[in-house]
Design a protein that fits this description.
- The protein is of the alpha+beta class and 466 residues long.
- It has five helices and 23 strands.
- Among the domains are: 62 residues, OB fold (Dihydrolipoamide Acetyltransferase, E2P), CATH 2.40.50.100; 139 residues, Orthogonal Bundle (Helix Hairpins).
- Helices cover 30% and strands 30% of the residues.
- A six-stranded antiparallel beta barrel has the order 3-11-16-13-12-17. It has a four-stranded antiparallel β-sheet with strand order 4-10-9-6, with no helix packed on it.
- β14 and β15 form a beta hairpin.
- It starts with 39 loop residues before the first strand and ends in a 9-residue tail after the last helix.
Length: 466
């Protein structure tokens, strides 16, 4: 006795690629003999045939450009001229608008004049300070400072006088001891010696002070020179002029890339705020869509897709997933009353490149895409309802094997492969092309007599194509 059927928990919209299991619904009207009164008749079957299977999701979104540039300006001068409008094709560097720079130009010229004057003055001051420092350094290194020289001369004179007085004092003392000089004269000479010594000490101090003054003068000359060097090298005013020049340049609004103007918010007289222009490549399009959290498990960049729009009708455009956002656009959690189960409404922005240049497809249009998550070719595929899940976890299908003018139900073990919401891949040694698989085996046991519907018995396919 077969177990219950397995049902997928995935929620995806499946797009048929090859319809290989066409539904048969024609009632096979035939007379059944009394010997077959217990035979189940008009059983819908699927005739096995190798086909392809795709697992896809369907999303809707909006067409946008893959190369889009918003044009802003930090300047707050009024718009003087608008040179581009919506629909214009532009090249990188083309002028889109020009701001009124009359006041800015006056500021620029004033700063330029100030910089020239300051630079000239700083150059003259530097030259003078350099000369003064080099002169002071030479005089100092060669002991040619006038103050030091004068102090040295005074010291030399004082030293000579001191020596003379010392010699004279020694002679006078000797004469006094021999009684040849009076005490008054000796005292007078001692006073002269004290005066000479005092004069000499003062001269020493004066020379030291003169040397210190010379050092200070040299230091001051050096400091003045270094200050002049720094002022001459100061680029503050030049930076101010450069900033004004940049502002002048920024008042000419240009296209950042080749493309088409799709937004123009600039008008003459307005003070720029926000986006002035949007320049986009209208031939390089993409579709942006929100994909549910449950569908992102297998979704990845590089997955193929087909894109359609209302304007192109049934025409399918090739697409490729460019990116899937790493973070949710929104993530609202809800929980059912009395349960612990949570339902996530999180979605993830997904971008799909649209191949080919389709002039009819325009930025902002709504679009629909079928993204192929996975696919297999040349395999056996049956509807989910045809698959039997055994109690031991294995799988089987119920086939209708020809037995006279009737058929016998026969359970055939299979392995389950790729799955979609409504179809599943099967494989197994007992499978072959044309084998009739009972579509709903829930009330049929292996060995039961069955009579397929007319279309099934004649070899038609009945089931799900994918």
């Amino acid at each position: 006795m077969n177990g219950g059927k397995k049902h997928s928990s995935k929620k995806k919209i499946i797009i048929p690629v090859v319809a290989v299991l066409a539904a048969g619904s024609i009632i096979y009207a035939c007379a059944v003999s009394s010997k077959a009164q217990n035979t189940q008749v008009n059983i819908t079957c699927s005739a096995l045939k190798k086909t392809n299977l795709q697992d896809t999701i369907s999303v809707t979104g909006t067409v946008s450009s893959r190369d889009s540039h918003n044009v802003y300006t930090a300047q707050t001068y009024p718009v003087a001229k608008v040179s581009a409008s919506v629909g214009d094709k532009v090249k990188k560097g083309d002028i889109l608008a020009v701001l009124d720079t009359s006041s800015l130009e006056k500021d620029f010229q004033a700063q330029k004049d100030t910089l020239q004057s300051t630079s000239k003055s700083a150059a003259i001051t530097l030259e003078q300070a350099k000369d003064s420092y080099e002169t002071a350094l030479y005089l100092y290194n060669h002991d040619m400072d006038s103050g030091v020289a004068a102090a040295q001369t005074q010291l030399d004179s004082a030293e000579s006088s001191l020596k003379t007085e010392k010699d004279q004092g020694a002679r006078d003392k000797l004469l006094y001891e021999k009684g040849q000089l009076s005490k008054i004269d000796l005292n007078a000479e001692e006073e002269k010696l004290k005066l000479a010594q005092s004069t000499y000490d003062s001269a020493v101090k004066s020379l030291l002070a003169a040397q210190q003054q010379a050092q200070q003068s040299l230091k001051s000359a050096k400091s003045t020179y270094e200050d002049a060097v720094n002022k001459n090298a100061d680029k503050t005013q030049q930076a101010t002029l450069d900033k004004l020049q940049t502002s002048l340049n920024d008042c000419i609004i240009t296209a950042p890339a080749d493309g088409t103007v799709t937004v123009c918010n600039a008008t003459v007289g307005m003070v720029p705020t926000g986006v002035l222009f949007t320049v986009e490549d209208t031939g390089n399009l993409q579709m942006e869509a929100e994909v549910r959290e449950i569908d992102t498990e297998e979704l990845k960049a590089g997955d193929k897709a087909t894109v359609t729009t209302d304007v192109t009708g049934k025409e399918k455009m090739a697409g490729t997933v460019i990116s899937v956002a790493p973070a949710a656009t929104r993530a609202v959690q809800t929980s059912g009353s009395g349960t612990s189960a949570n339902t996530s409404n999180a979605t993830f922005t997904t971008k799909i490149a649209i191949s080919g240049n389709k002039p009819a497809v325009k930025i902002g249009m709504k679009a629909k895409a079928n993204i192929v998550l996975s696919q297999k070719k040349d395999i056996y595929v049956i509807p989910y309802d045809s698959l039997i899940e055994k109690n031991d976890g294995t799988y089987a299908v119920m086939a209708a094997e020809k037995s006279g003018y009737l058929y016998k139900a026969e359970e055939i073990p299979v392995k389950q492969g790729m799955q979609t919401d409504v179809a599943v891949e099967i494989s197994g040694a007992g499978l072959k092309d044309g084998l009739l698989i009972i579509s709903d085996p829930s009330n049929i046991k292996s060995g039961d007599s069955v009579l397929p519907s007319s279309s099934s018995a004649s070899g038609s396919n009945s089931g799900v194509g994918a």
